[in-house]
Write a structure and sequence with these properties.
single chain; about 325 residues; mainly alpha; 2 domains; manganese ion transmembrane transporter activity; transmembrane helix; transmembrane; GDT1 family protein; GDT1-like_CS
Amino acid sequence: MTAPFARCRGKKPTALSMVSFAPLLPALLPLAFQHPGALLQRGAPSRCASSPSRVPQPSLQQPPNSGDAPLLPWVRPALVGASAAAVVAGGALMLPGVAHASILDSAFVQSTSLIFISELGDKTFFIAALLAARASKLLTFAGCAGALALMTVVSVLIGQIFHQVPAGLTRGLPLDDYVAIASFVFFGIKAILDAAQIEEDGAGIAEESEEAEETLEQSGLYGKSGWPLVLEACTLTIAAEVGDRSQIATIALAAAQNPYLVAFGAIAGHCAATGMAVLGGSFISKYLSERVIGFVGGGLFLVFALTTAVGLF
C-alpha cells in the first residue's frame, strides 16, 4: 500500500487536503511544547541509551513545580484555535483562484461595476449633484434614480429582443453574444484611447458639469419642489441617458447574460453613483480623475468581453 504522503508527492496542496489533515494539528502541535522528559516517560526510545559516554549526561526528569503544568489548560486550546485558523486561512488563500472565474462571470457583478464606473463624472451624475445642492436631496435622488431604473428595464428588454432572435435567422450563431462582445471591445478600446489622449485631467469632467448646469438652467427646474421636481428630474435624466455608454453596456449585458441579474446589478450601480452625486457630488467631482476612470472602465469592458468570449467555447 502506498503511503498517504507518497501519493500526494509532486501535487499542489488543495483546500480539501488541508481540511483532511486539520484534525491532526491540535494533537501534534502540543507535543512541540512538552518537556523532552515527558516523551521519554511515555516509552520513546533513546538512541544514546546503550552507548557509553564519558561525559555525564544531565537528568531528563522534569523537575517538580517547574511551572509547565499550569500552562497546559490554556496552551492546548490556544494551539487548537491557531491550527484551525491556519487551516481556514490556508484554504481561503486557495479559494480566489477557484472563485475568480465565477466572480467575473457573474452578471450582477459585471453590470454593477460597469454601470458604476460609467456613471461617475457623467452628465447624469452632475445633474443629480447640482440639483441636490439647490433642492431636496431625497426628491432629487427619487427622480434621478427612478429614471435610471426605468431606462435600465427598457435596456434589458432591448437586450432580450436580441437574445430571442430565432435561430433560423442567425443560422445557429449566438448573435446576442457576438453583439455583446463587439460592444464591449468597442467601448473598451474607445475608453482607453480617449483616456490616453487626455492632456489636462479633469477638463472633460468640467465640461460635463457645465453642460449639466446649462440643462438645469434652461429647464427652469431650480426653485421647484414636490412632485414637479421629481418628474422634471426624471425627464432630464432620461433625456441625458438615451444613447449613453451605460445604456449600450446594459443592452449588451442583457443580450448575453441573465436579464434579472443584469437589471438588479445595473440598478444597484446607478443608485450607488446617484447616491454619491446627491450626497457630495460637488466635493467628489474635485477628486475624480477622468484619465483613471477611462482606463478602469475600458479595462473592465475588455475583461468582460474576454469572459463572454470564453463562455462561448
